[in-house]
Amino acid sequence: MLAIGRALAVDHDIRVLSTAGAMSRVAAAGLQGRAILPGGDDALRAIVDPPHAIGSNPVRLHRQFQGALRLLTRLHDELHELYRHEPPELQLVDFTLPVAGSVAVQAGIPWWTTLPAPCVLESRDGPPSYLGGLRPGTSFWRRLQHTVGRRLIRGFKRSVFWLYRARIRGAGVAQLYRDDGEEAIYSPTCILAMASPELEFARRWPPALRFVGPMLYTPPHPLTLSEPPFVDGRKHVLVTLGTHLGWRKDAFAASVRAVAAVRQGIEFHFTDGDTRRTGSERVANFARLPFVDYDRFVGRYDAIVHHGGAGVLHHTLAHGKPAVVFPCDYDQFDHAARLEAAGVAVWLRRPDGLGSAIDRVLVDDAMQANCRRFAARIDVAAGLEQVRELVRRHFA
Prior knowledge:
Elements: H1 2-8, E1 15-18, H2 23-28, E2 32-35, H3 40-48, H4 58-85, E3 91-94, H5 98-107, E4 111-115, H6 140-163, H7 165-170, E5 191-193, E6 209-211, E7 235-240, H8 246-261, E8 266-271, E9 281-283, E10 286-289, H9 294-297, E11 303-306, H10 310-318, E12 323-325, H11 332-341, E13 345-347, H12 354-363, H13 365-377, H14 380-395
Parallel strand pairs: 1-2, 3-4, 4-5, 5-6, 7-8, 7-11, 8-10, 11-12, 12-13
Antiparallel strand pairs: 9-10
Helix pairs in contact: 1-14, 3-4, 4-5
């Protein structure tokens, strides 16, 4: 979102709405920020980064959804009041904030959706998401599996909407699907898919979808973060589970440490993805670091081990690096399926296979070639210019 904001600021006045905790990063990106949802950072962290996997556990899903509804209701009310006095001429909404689109509709403000993970969109064909990483197929049984899966996902969403209908409507979301059958939480006008179309499985996309490619940008951090300890003449592997998944990191770091102990010729860097932390751990060829800037350092690694998050997977693709993908929750399994099908990653099902998976990607020439082809297709500058052109046409 900050990458898009910086590109559009050349021609337009940009205002970034987010919680107080994001304001320093907004300012570092050279943009004007406005803090909303007082105290929302802690509430948001509790929702998106619980101390356990959510998966399909009904109790955990219920608690997470209740917390999300409380926060989204506050967001709806605050945006509604703000836009009474200071309405924007165009609103770009992160796909996780459906109530912002509802407020825009009520206020008569044009709005678009930004979506870094287009696999989560429902469609009329192809493998549905959130079912463990389904792959395409042409056999009768595979097509039947996809059909049943799509109906299962839509039925689940309808059931949740009905069970929570009073609270969901109180948050400003009046319907789950529009008359054309598309999901109402996404803009009917423009959905900016910030992803590589070549990575996605073929299917019929909603008419509003526009692939603009990955938007890769990390704002400069106000604190000086130390450079990872690179060693001349050695291969280096970066291991990251992103900024969330705190419940999984200690155990996975221990797995990486064990792999490093029997591969002394390879340097392993495990990052917690947390700029609030200080200090690091280093034992022989294993280092655990608070934060590694993907923009600056991913290109210096020989392979990346990651969880399948949209940000790190596109940084990895843009730099032409092979990956080992260890999905833990949400849409990460769907990303793992796509990366493996594209021949640019190994899908790690169990942590005890980490060492052999790393050994494979470091020497797999075919995978290395696939990675270079993907990197050649990713042009962030061209994608940002495409967004600027779409906005120009909107205001023309």
